[in-house]
Design a protein that fits this description.
By secondary structure, the chain is mostly helical. The chain folds into 3 domains: 6-133, Alpha Horseshoe (MgtE N-terminal fold), CATH 1.25.60; 145-249, CBS-domain (Roll), CATH 3.10.580; 276-446, SLC41 divalent cation transporters, integral membrane domain (Tetracycline Repressor, domain 2, Orthogonal Bundle), CATH 1.10.357. Helices cover 66% and strands 5% of the residues. It is built from 22 helices and 5 strands. The chain has helices at residues 6-19, 23-32, 35-44, 47-54, 59-66, 71-77, 83-92, 95-104, 107-116, 120-123, 134-137, 151-161, 186-191, 198-201, 215-224, 245-263, 276-302, 305-310, 314-341, 350-380, 383-413, 418-446, and strands at 145-146, 171-174, 180-184, 229-233, 239-244. The strands form 2 sheets. A 3-stranded mixed β-sheet has the order 1-2-3.
């Protein structure tokens, strides 16, 4: 088991060795670490020290380390390498990772590095697809089985071309025109007669995707069918590449990060200790939007200043009505956003979802409204106050359900991320409607 503190200790040790000019020992220490730990240590080093260590490492080791970093971090780490050195490192990386790194470089620099790569024929096709699609995250297919092979020939072929067992996710079978025609399990291959052909034992129904499919959809398919890899094919079913579950794990982390930041109205590249100017730029806009909606809610309250002055007790219960409505709306919108993201809820199911959430909002509103009305009656001894807050609570719960469904659906229909702006619009609706219902009823029934 690797101790959590190993990275901190290793970083201190590497810095100490570099300060004493023992550069080769510092590089050797990195080689002994797991690539993920070595990547963290290397990234945390000062740029000048990082450059010294990099020039003591072989290209294969650097490639293993880079594959543990995000695209932005990779670019920062390799900035001290020359074009030819970077080309050598990229030749040692998985084609999809190499393509990701090239995609972050300036166009002219990327073209120069690609030209000097020996494995450019595997990497160049991946640069043609957007990075958030199946084509952008796929790996170039390696040696594939042929339908005319016998089982004995297929086993010999695998031994010859696959030295790493981690490369054997599934055994895809192609015809002479490079079209995907089937899939064979290793178990079926081992148990079959050596003289049987793959055409006889392969499964012909293969789940595949086109290169322009969004990476989130690829992740959903892998999860839905419990797959380790998914082939990417063109319109004529030619095999273009393979997306593995390892690739999708990175995608899921990125998408989850975007959704979490989106709920807080922050950009996906926000980070603790990011430059102050960048932090202000990414956060201030949505704070100003929130401020505008807060003034809208305040304007509604100002319409009932006379009521509040004459029945001051209303001010005590105002936050409860608005707050409970906001909480209920967040519950609804969170469920809807998640269901839309996972493909569990389609756009044509709007009315079904709306009816369900409105009924749920009504039941919850009645239950919460009765409790709050009872508390108001016991606390303030005013049955009419209890009626006002109870009815207002039911009304705001219904509005919360309505907004919690319609706002994410509308944003999704417009091609916007529902997680990014749903919270602002939702709290605006529940604050404004909560104050309007409560103070309006209070004006009508208590004055």
């Amino acid at each position: 088991m690797v101790e959590p503190m190993v990275v901190d200790r290793a970083l201190e040790r590497v810095r100490a060795l570099l300060e004493r000019g023992r550069n080769r020992e510092a590089a050797q220490l990195l080689r002994r670490l797991h690539p993920a730990d070595a990547a963290e240590v290397l990234y945390e080093l000062e740029p000048d020290r990082r450059a010294v260590v990099l020039h003591e490492l072989d290209w294969e080791t650097i490639a293993d380390i880079l594959e543990e970093l995000d695209e932005d971090e990779m670019v920062e780490v390799v900035e001290s390498l020359t074009t030819s050195e970077l080309a050598g490192v990229l030749d040692e990386m998985e084609p999809d990772m190499a393509a990701d790194l090239l995609g972050e470089l300036e166009e002219a620099e990327a073209a120069e590095v690609l030209q000097q790569m020996e494995e450019r024929e595997e990497v160049a096709p991946l640069l043609a697809y957007p990075e958030d699609t199946a084509g952008g995250i796929m790996t170039t297919p390696r040696h594939m089985l042929r339908r005319h092979m016998t089982v004995a020939q297929a086993m010999a072929f695998l031994r010859e071309h696959y030295q790493d067992e981690h490369d054997l996710y599934y055994l895809y079978v192609l015809d002479r025109n490079q079209r995907l025609v089937g899939i064979v399990s290793l178990r079926a291959l081992v148990l079959a007669d050596p003289d049987q052909t793959l055409d006889e034992i392969m499964e012909r129904d293969v789940i595949s995707v086109s290169p322009d499919v969004d990476q989130e959809e690829v992740a959903r398919l892998l999860a839905r069918y419990n797959l380790l890899a998914l082939p990417v094919v063109d319109e004529e079913n030619h095999l273009l590449g393979i997306v593995t579950v390892d690739d999708v794990m990175d995608v899921l982390e990125e998408e989850a990060t975007e959704d979490i930041y989106g709920i807080a109205q922050m950009s996906g590249d926000a980070a603790i200790f990011s430059p102050l100017r960048e932090a202000v730029r990414t956060r201030l806009f949505w704070l100003m939007v929130n401020l505008g909606t807060a003034f809208l809610a305040s304007a509604v309250v100002s319409l009932f200043e006379g009521t509040i002055a004459r029945v001051a007790v209303l001010a005590t219960f105002m936050p409860i009505v608005a707050g409970q409505g906001g909480n209920a709306g967040i519950q609804t919108s969170t469920i809807v956003i998640r269901s839309l993201a996972l493909g569990e809820l389609a756009l044509d199911e709007l009315w079904k979802a709306l009816r369900y959430e409105l009924l749920l909002g009504l039941l919850n509103g009645i239950a919460v409204g009765l409790v709050v009305a009872g508390v108001a009656l016991v606390w303030k001894g005013n049955p009419m106050l209890g009626l006002v807050i109870g009815v207002a609570m039911v009304g705001n719960m219904l509005m919360a359900a309505l907004a919690g469904v319609l706002i994410p659906f509308a944003l999704h229909r417009m091609g916007r991320d529902p997680a990014l702006a749903s919270g602002i619009f939702l709290t605006t609706v529940t604050d404004v409607c909560g104050f309007l219902f409560f103070l309006g009823l209070g004006t009508w029934l208590l004055l």
